[in-house]
DNA sequence: ATGAAAGCGCTAACAC
DNA sequence: GTGTTAGCGCTTTCAT
């Protein structure tokens, strides 16, 4: 058991018959090492089970090899997926991931995050919605020169590299499907205004209606706040109308679940009397009755890609600013049907 | 903007007119510093906004000030809650948290984790179910002398400090309630055998039945695997019986959600024709129809407490091995009612 | 109660 | 292509 061994770079250098610096070059994949030398060193590393000390290299290089992941999202599954994606890249690139839940409406958020960067030795940050659109935070990071990337930002897109999905297009597709099913009165529950990425899904709904021959009725659009409870309240409002909608499209699954509950309590059969659609494909979507037609996003891939962009940036490689755009896909389940 | 300042321990020492070592004593709350000296130093620290460099102290002290959180749990909300609790303690105690999802049935799990400890400079580990009961892992950590704590272990309890809940008692209570509602045929869906903490809830069900005048019918107990789908399959089996149960108690909420779906598909009214109970109080419990009667555990507090025990251990303080036992509570919602 | 000196294991800057 | 020399900012002895 070589658990106590703790080989250092000097041990490797001695065994390989080279200098410390050469070992360092091999470890850090720097150029200017002869192939044969590299192999000797690698053999020594393997034999001694040498692993560089992160603290030593952090101290010497003044970098932490830690990425910070910032989030303020009530959806546990979203956060877990983002973590998973970020971790995949971190493992590949030799970084650690520091998770940092915070409050997007905390007035001193920017200071808090800058303190994290300064004191908790984080080399760069990954911002997720709704933090991606907190102007004060984004500006603060740019000003302080902190490397960062964002998931699904909706504004200030030149501030940093980012990854996003075609949400609006997917919302457009979903609305078109409902129209094709014969629905003419389609209620829409808008997302939390602070959570721009969700809020903007409304544009897709609008676009689809404009293309159709249906006249837009603004009383069919109600403001939600992304939570199950707000979804239920919005549904109560929509379903209480004299000429109630035959379909309701909620900007996320939690709200759609609220719609379904409210419909159950009103004794409405779904999809016979009411079609319901959501967005996100969270676990609840297939755990409720009827199972929810929704839109799935490649969250893990987005996060993994975002972390890659950040690592590239940290390695000094130019990152293409036009960013990565990934595709959502509509998942049809049992909650939608013909009018 | 003192963002570039980067005061070091020398700067503080100079300003306070003391030696580096004295500053170090103050920062680390060591004894043998006169109160007046301490104050001078603290003033200097405040004025310079000094924060110790983690990498420097890690290198010098040969500790990382990082705790590792290990998990392999399909419930995103459980993991998020555990993270939150662990983070609370980490923030207070000056530690960082490294998250490490893994596979409990991976044959080389123990080696993987030991490599993490050895190379990723983690001072101690927090194990969550079902990892808390992976004998090979637990034994490996003990043998290697790695400090660790566990959440909800069911065996080998002397191996390390731990925190647990009175699951079995809560399962007993829940079963009693169903009996009081007049149910005489209560189906039970057991938890995944690998996930001992969940699996042992069965004992509570058994105990309650034994105390009652109801005769135990083993055909009412089916083996689940903690997932929604397995819950649904088990429900299909139970509800397909000639003399089907009037209540079903599933060992966790995901399986209970599966039961509810299956009942919907069979056109059974709940709770009129079937009562359903779950365990865990995950978000889905109040998002489904009917809302689910279940048991709530103080997950965040457990994780926070566990991290505290670990930190104490790392600080060399003796940890009381009898460990902390926290209470669950039954939450009655709409899925249960009189027979 | 306080201080001086010696590293911790690595990278950076500059030789050669 | 490779080696030498200084630190990075702390904690640890061990003095005093």
TrEMBL record, chains A, B:
The keyword Transcription applies. Residues 7-61 form the HTH lacI-type domain. SMART domains: HTH_LACI. Pfam families: LacI, Peripla_BP_3. GO terms for molecular function: DNA-binding transcription factor activity; transcription cis-regulatory region binding. Keywords: DNA-binding, Transcription, Transcription regulation. It comes from the Bacteria. This is LacI family DNA-binding transcriptional regulator. InterPro entries: HTH_LacI, LacI/GalR-like_sensor, Lambda_DNA-bd_dom_sf, Peripla_BP_I. It comes from Gilvimarinus xylanilyticus.
């Amino acid at each position: 058991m070589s658990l106590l061994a703790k080989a250092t770079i000097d041990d490797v250098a001695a065994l390989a018959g080279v200098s410390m610096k050469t070992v360092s070059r091999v470890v850090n994949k720097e150029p200017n090492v002869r192939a044969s030398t590299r192999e000797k060193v690698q053999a020594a590393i393997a034999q001694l089970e040498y692993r560089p000390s992160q603290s030593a290299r952090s101290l010497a290089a003044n970098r932490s090899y830690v990425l910070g992941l910032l989030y303020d999202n009530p959806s546990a599954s979203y956060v877990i997926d983002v973590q998973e994606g970020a971790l995949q890249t971190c493992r590949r690139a030799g970084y650690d991931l520091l998770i940092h839940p915070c409050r997007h409406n905390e007035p001193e958020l920017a200071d808090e995050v800058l303190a994290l960067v300064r004191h908790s030795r984080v080399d760069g940050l990954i911002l997720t919605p709704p933090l991606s659109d907190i102007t004060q935070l984004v500006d603060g990071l740019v000003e302080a020169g902190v490397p960062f990337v964002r998931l699904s930002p909706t504004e200030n897109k030149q501030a940093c590299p980012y990854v996003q999905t075609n949400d609006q297009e997917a919302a457009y597709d979903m609305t078109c499907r409902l129209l094709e099913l014969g629905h003419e009165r389609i209620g829409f529950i808008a997302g939390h205004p602070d959570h721009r990425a969700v809020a903007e899904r409304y544009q897709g709904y609008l676009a689809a209606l404009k293309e159709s021959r249906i006249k837009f009725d603004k009383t069919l659009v109600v403001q939600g706040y992304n939570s199950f409870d707000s979804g239920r309240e919005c549904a109560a409002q929509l379903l209480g109308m004299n000429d109630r909608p035959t379909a309701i499209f909620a900007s996320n699954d939690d709200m759609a679940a609220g719609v379904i509950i409210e419909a159950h309590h009103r004794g409405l059969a779904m999809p016979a009397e009411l079609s319901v659609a959501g967005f996100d494909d969270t676990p609840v979507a297939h755990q409720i009755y009827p199972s929810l037609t929704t839109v799935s996003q490649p969250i893990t891939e987005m996060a993994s890609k975002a972390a890659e962009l950040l690592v590239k940036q940290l390695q000094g490689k130019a990152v293409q600013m036009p960013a990565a755009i990934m595709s959502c896909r509509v998942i049809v389940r049992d909650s939608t049907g013909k009018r």
